[in-house]
Amino acid sequence: MRIFIVVLCLVFAGTANAFYKCKKPDGSVSFSDAPCGVRDDGVDIEKEQRYQESLEKRTEQERDRLAMEKRERTGKLMSERKRQDVFVRQYFKVIAKDAIPHYTAEEYPELEKTYYDRMVDIESYRLSAVRLVLNSQQCDKVSASNLDQPNSTPKDLNILVECVNGNRFRLHEKEITKGTVPAPLDAAKTSGQQAK
Length: 196
Known about the structure:
Blueprint: H1 2-15, E1 20-23, E2 29-32, H2 45-90, H3 109-114, H4 119-135, E3 142-147, E4 158-163, E5 168-172, H5 173-178, H6 185-195
Antiparallel strand pairs: 1-2, 3-4, 4-5
Helix pairs in contact: 2-4
């Protein structure tokens, strides 16, 4: 009889489920037949929490990176605009006061949206184009320096500089970088008409 009881105890002990006492995040205690941290569907809760924390950390880092890039871009834009203002004040005799208006997001929302990544370049090229045109001795006074939107794309910028004497220049970003000035636009039309 004793052997039967021992065998019976061993059978029940082998088939009995183990129970685990687990502490929940809120501090309460629960009992489960699965190890602590494992759900019924077999997902490791701790591993999932680590993944979620990692995902949140990466999202926060991306937000911080974008905010930093925005601050840097804003700083560069402000610097370019200050350079423009200083240059216009220094050369007020040959540059109209409002010849290089600031392209702000408030006043030029579509331009800002289309050329967001190139706005610093645009501001820089506009000032450089004015300098080149003035140095070419073909412009008495600059009346405007703007992005030539009909002839530009975000990857291919053209700046249009207009002068009081009627000369207009379209400078491609490569020409500005090289420091070359093309013939005035109206002069090309005039010489073409004279050839006829």
